[in-house]
From TrEMBL:
This is Uncharacterized protein. It comes from Clostridium chromiireducens.
Length: 66
């Protein structure tokens, strides 16, 4: 599925959030909330499943509890 401009922007915002929280050291504690946000965006067709997978992989790469 080709992502729309809105989906691309939302994925970029989520990527920035993940990277910022990882840099601040808060991603580990907020991991479930970020994943729930991603799931909600997928359910609402606001991001694609492919984007969701990429974001979840990014989270996994930046946290210690996998």
């Amino acid at each position: 599925m080709i992502a729309t401009a809105t989906q691309l922007r939302l994925a970029k915002i989520l990527t920035n959030r993940i990277n910022a929280e990882a840099a601040e050291g808060t991603l580990e504690a907020d991991k479930e909330n970020v994943i729930e946000t991603i799931d909600a965006f997928v359910a609402g067709n606001k991001i694609t499943l492919e984007q969701s997978s990429e974001l979840n992989e990014l989270i996994q790469s930046k946290t210690t509890t996998k």
